[in-house]
Specification:
The structure is a homodimer of 564-residue chains. Helix content of chain A is 25%, strand content 28%. Chain A is of the alpha/beta class. Chains A and B meet through strand 3, helix 6 and helix 7 of A and strand 3, helix 6 and helix 7 of B.
């Protein structure tokens, strides 16, 4: 069947021009652009007064961060005009390894939003991490045969690259030898170290926060991904990249995106809209988010409105506000007048689904597991939260273990525990944290970068054990517990990271869980689950807790609780 | 060994910026660009006052047209800053088929000028051609495994593509499925037909002569190769493509380049220079001829001065005149202060060399073979040359066969013969041609597009036979004969297309052959060998001669000599 889209103003992403033109589609592809008539088609849509542009491509996202399965993510993102994403399943890979990758490929098969994958390069992310799996070069290679796998995911261990780590270099070389893309992650790296990192074969970066930092990378051949997600928001600082000559080597990405933000704020459309509101040409944003993303990742005949190109198209009511009206995926309308048209879920292989949904391997815990065998007063290394930031400070604090086993909730000092939950090793890292606002009860979560062990914070060991056990029963999730009662919970049974629910349900559940923190005394606006998600990641300064205990991030070594 | 190139002004092809910077090389690659010092290197070169840019890439050339073997071509092109070419061995493939392709790959192995190949798509070019070989999809596919093969050569049969020819589409699809490039050739195609041609999978065109023609292609996703060769010179008409936004989707190519023109005029450097003389930024030309060419053809880490990139570099004394001083190929200096440094010839496999050098298969001819068995006066279809053009006119002319078997040199009417020389079929096409200027003797050549059969023109059947036999003895070449004596000759023993001599010798020999045409009465300035090279190509209007006889090009059919 031939479809004619007539009288729309077509955004030409090759030249940046806008021209009223007719577009003829058939069999999922664009047949022609130009002087076509109704007689050429079986169906005609009149787009007078509207714009036609290619579907948006998010060049770097962790779908797990949306807490949604790929199909539900697609349902949330499609109405915002996203027709493809390049996803890095780094989180599920840390939990489930290759099975997690196979699951993500299957769970995204045949969706009207194309999910391309980059295979995670750094599993585990550091030597301190006790992950559910380890991906070596030989585990990664077979995935490169899959047509939706585009390369190697963000190479975060940039010190290892710069210092010539052979294992990591092999992973990079394997991907490059196949002509595939290698994503970077190296915030603030500059000069000679950046040269070494790029020369090792890293093609891009999404961690730039400053325009000059980004320009250095472009001048040195990298592509810069302008990231505007839920947590990290770099658009403001990188606005100068929307100008000549830099925009030609930039993409738009979200990296991490929470469900409510995706539903309400938008996706790539929102980045273009925000840039337009700051005076940047929306056509420039569209070029970055379409053809440039496709060409950077080596996707052929995707990302433009031209003969032979895949018919992934958006009808916009307005260009400045990027108001997405209709979305065509491979020539089929999937969003009509802003409304998503239904599509079936992919059929999941029970083998991968059971591996992913049975990711918890740990024994039940009791309050004893959260007690420290110490008496009297000791000077301890306490994790000090810094308002509004993911980095922490090491605070030396005199702790009286004879009172509440050292906790002092009245003075904002509670316990934190990180429990190994992949291989039932029984490893538990225990410590103290200040600045959470917790006065009573406990909160627990299985979203805890990058190993996604079980993290618990609380003012009461009984509640900590209860919350931890509850998460284990759920097979993953978030829970807020007081007096051995669950105040709110959000099950995340898929690898302890994703829900089977829709984006709307996920957003509501997530909202309830966050609100229920008030019942523990946590002030509104403190994003405690975000704090928990990063309190165990030993690459963010200055002190973090792992299953093996406290890590001095700056010195990259384990340190004892007692500072004496 | 580490080399520091210091204080040069580096052309940044990612941004178009010029900046004085230090460049550090090692093992054929660029280690870094920026703040490096002499202490970082074993050797330092001071480039104060000079420019540093990536080596030039010719995106489309037929090396056979230079009449040089790849090594000699490299010796002529390197001093002009060419460090890579994408060659389409269409000519040798028409003569020697797969053996010719293998020969070209071997004859270009390990040269300090990288020769990438596109595998010819249209062998034979038309149904009228009697070629030495026929390349089907299954003959082409094995060559895609070679690391220097980048795709499918120019798809000239655009009518076949537009009309859905299955065999040709299979060749295109085979290349695309492998992620390879497919070159186009479709002069003046526009609108719906162009859409169909592009949608079939054709990525570029080098036949544009008008800026609007080129812009339509860019808007529709093709890359435009701005061609400025010896015969076809499109720079003037395409100068507007040097401006935003079009230059981002353009390359610079020569297509056909004769040895004297290559030596004296230059190569890609000359295109940039000519554009600069017409007010276009040489940096724009450099960007088209380096990074853009590399990226279009999917060459990774080639075409820029950036960390990890192959160290193919030029030192320019001056930017506007593109005065190439030094050339580095893979970090090694190959041209120093304008002088080529010696390098060895590739070792040739005797199997391919003997196939290529034994390409003539025909019996000796006598004057009888050039006589028409006709008596009296007949109206004949005469090929009428048009001054300065490759197209011809069909001229009906009363011919008296009782006088000189129809020839009338006094009135500029001589004979033309095209002799099948690949398979000894004995096929000879015989006809009349006017406008050559030949008054006596004969000229013969084995360079005769695209089948490269033996073509002879002359005012005397004895001399025609003598000249034809002489070319056969030489195994190919050009010869000018009068009274059964060779006035001048140029042997082209490699497939009847290329000499083993250097560019300088080839240019001198070619000059002598062309000058000797004066001995036949041909006025100076008439490029008779160029005329002969295209007099047998049944795709250029309006009438051509093949081994099977006259072809009415417009109607694409054989027509008899007698117009009665």
């Amino acid at each position: 069947m031939r479809t004619l889209l007539k009288n729309g103003t077509v955004i030409n992403v090759f030249t940046g021009e806008k021209e009223q033109s007719q577009v003829l589609l058939e069999d999922g592809r664009i047949l022609g652009v130009g002087d076509y008539q109704e007689a050429d088609a079986d169906v005609t849509e009149d787009l007078s007064g509207k714009y036609l542009c290619p579907g948006f491509i998010d060049g770097h996202i962790h779908i797990e961060s949306t807490m949604l399965l790929p199909a539900e993510f697609a349902r949330a993102a499609l109405p915002h005009g996203t027709t493809a994403v390049v996803a890095d399943p780094h989180e599920i890979a840390n939990v489930c390894g290759s099975a997690g990758l196979s699951f993500m490929l299957e769970a995204s098969e045949g969706l009207p939003l194309e999910v391309y994958l980059m295979i995670p390069s750094c599993v585990p992310a550091t030597e301190f991490d006790e992950t559910g799996a380890c991906l070596e070069a030989e585990d990664i290679a077979p995935f490169y045969e899959h047509p939706r796998v585009l390369g190697l995911g963000e190479v975060m261990s940039y010190h290892a690259v710069v210092n010539g780590d052979a294992g990591l270099q092999k992973k990079i070389d394997d991907a490059r030898r196949r002509g595939l893309t290698v994503n970077g992650h190296a915030p603030l790296l500059t000069g000679r170290e950046l040269d070494r990192y790029i020369a090792a074969g890293i093609g891009d970066d999404h961690e730039c926060s400053l325009a000059e930092e980004a320009k250095e990378r472009i001048r040195k051949g990298q592509w810069v991904m302008i990231r505007q997600g839920t947590a990290a928001r770099n658009l403001e600082g990188l606005l100068p990249l929307f100008d000549e000559p830099f925009f030609h080597r930039c993409l738009l990405v979200t990296d991490d995106k929470h469900p409510a933000d995706l539903l309400e704020g938008g996706h790539i459309d929102d980045i273009i809209r925000q840039a337009a509101a700051r005076g940047k040409d929306p056509v420039t944003g569209i070029r970055m988010a379409t053809l440039q993303a496709a060409e950077y990742f080596g996707l052929k005949r995707v990302g433009a409105i031209a003969p032979g190109y895949q018919a992934d198209l958006l009808v916009l009511d307005d260009l400045e506000t990027v108001a997405v009206r209709d979305v065509y995926k491979k020539g089929k309308k999937v969003v009509s007048a802003g409304k998503l048209l239904p599509f079936p879920n992919p059929v999941l292989n029970p083998k991968w689904e059971s591996a992913v949904c049975g990711s918890f391997h740990m024994d039940r815990l009791s309050s004893k597991d959260f007690r420290l065998e110490l008496e009297g007063i000791h000077c301890c290394r306490v994790i000090g939260l810094v308002e509004g930031q993911l980095l922490t400070e090491e605070v030396p604090r005199e702790i009286d273990f004879d009172s509440q086993n050292g906790m002092d909730p009245e003075n904002d000092l509670v316990k934190i525990a990180v429990i190994e939950r992949h291989s039932n090793t029984g490893h538990i890292g225990l410590g103290f944290i200040q600045g959470t606002g917790i006065r009573q009860g406990a909160a627990a979560a299985s979203v805890s970068h990058d190993s996604h062990n079980l993290i618990v914070m609380g003012a009461d060991e009984e509640d900590m054990a209860f919350a931890a056990n509850r998460i284990c029963e759920l097979g993953g999730g978030m829970a807020v517990v007081r007096d051995k009662k669950v105040l709110a919970e959000m099950p995340l049974p898929y690898a302890g990271l994703m829900t089977g629910a829709s984006a709307g349900e996920a957003a509501s559940q997530n909202e309830l869980v966050r609100e229920s923190l008030g019942g523990l005394g946590v002030p509104e606006g403190k994003e405690l689950f975000m704090t928990m998600a990063f309190a165990s990641l030993p690459v963010i300064p200055h002190i973090k807790l792992t299953t093996r205990g406290l890590v001095d991030v700056d010195r990259q070594r384990l340190v004892p609780l007692l500072a004496e």
